[in-house]
Amino acid sequence: MARSLSEIEALFDRPFFDLLYEAHGVHRRHFDPADIQISTLLSIKTGGCPEDCGYCPQSRRHDGGVEESPLLTTAEVVAAAKEAKARGASRFCMGAAWRGPKDADVKAVADMVRAISDLGLETCATLGLLREGQAEALADAGLDYYNHNIDTSREYYGDVIHTRDFDDRLKTLSRVRKAGLKVCCGGIVGMGESRRDRAALIAELAAMDPPPESVPINLLVRIKGTPLADQPRIEPLEFVRTIAVARLCLPASRVRLAAGREGMTDELQTLCFFAGANSLFAGEKLLTAPNADAMADSALFRSLGLRALPA
């Protein structure tokens, strides 16, 4: 049964060690705590997006230093997928800077999905808003997951994005579910939102029926030229609290450390793993933002006794 917003706020207010102890227990009841699912995210079409998301350097409305480039070829994407698998990824995610794809774009991505599936990797795509029939076309190609984040609370959403509304995102998620695809949906913290907004984000995710199988929790990457470039950093322990509350409210979901890991210490990531994070993005970049070093990830895994799930 989904918790109310006030109940989730109360979780955030719990003593830190009590919160982590409970979250870790829930995590152990649903997952092997030594297993980490690793995904790699590739930008298959970069820049030139007409949206105005305040965190994103790929918007043509911002001066984020990202040059627009066309859709990659299937051969280019497959080469990247092979490299990702060799580095331990079990899921390959493709992101495109569109408000929403044209049918011809969906067809091209479907070809990529088929080729990547043949490598034995799970597939995920994040292409923006989907129209009727597009989710079904991706499902027919064998796509496993569709990512479409709700980003923040319904109340704070309009402070970050003005070119689409919160319900637009829910409509796409509904189409994804209707097509039989698994859902990857999470949000971004550190955008100036309140703790109540973070609680409301988790409440919205937990109230989905069923909840997302994969829940990326992004820590804002402050990129020069974007409206949120000067946001103050969120306190590290507040980020850990967010992971722990997400685990308690989404006990069977994979909770992923996504953007922002390149600025996290090993100690902070360790607390996040203990609190219930059991998935992460690996690779040099997350779309256009830098990501944590792969060698450092391997060293941390060894020291903690963690292991990547096989492809």
Order of helices and strands: HHEHEHEHEHHEEHEHEHEEEHE
> Could you tell me the number of beta strands?
12
Q: Look at the helices and sheets and give the structural class.
A: alpha/beta
Per CATH, what is the topology? TIM Barrel
Distance between the termini: 32 Å
Strand content: 15-25%
Q: Count of helical segments?
A: 11
Poorly predicted segments: none
| Major sheet characteristics | 10 strands, parallel
The overall pLDDT, averaged over residues, is 92
Q: Measured on Cα atoms, how large is the radius of gyration?
A: 18 Å
Helix content: 40-55%
List the helices and strands and how they pair.
Layout: H1 5-12, H2 16-30, E1 35-45, H3 74-86, E2 91-96, H4 103-117, E3 122-126, H5 134-140, E4 145-147, H6 154-160, H7 166-178, E5 182-184, E6 187-189, H8 195-207, E7 214-219, H9 236-249, E8 254-257, H10 266-275, E9 279-282, E10 285-286, E11 289-290, H11 294-304, E12 307-308
Parallel strand pairs: 1-2, 1-9, 1-12, 2-3, 3-4, 4-5, 6-7, 7-8, 8-9
Antiparallel strand pairs: 10-11
Helix pairs in contact: 1-8, 2-9, 3-4, 4-5, 8-9, 9-10
Notes on the protein architecture:
The protein is α/β, with parallel strands linked by helices and 311 residues long. The chain has a single domain, classed as Alpha-Beta Barrel (TIM Barrel). It has eleven helices and twelve strands. The protein has helices at 5-12, 16-30, 74-86, 103-117, 134-140, 154-160, 166-178, 195-207, 236-249, 266-275, 294-304, and strands at residues 35-45, 91-96, 122-126, 145-147, 182-184, 187-189, 214-219, 254-257, 279-282, 285-286, 289-290, 307-308. Helix 10 (266-275) links the parallel strand 8 (254-257) and strand 9. Helix 1 (5-12) crosses helix 8 (195-207) and helix 9 (236-249) runs parallel beside helix 10. The radius of gyration is 18 Å and the shape is globular. The mean pLDDT is 92.
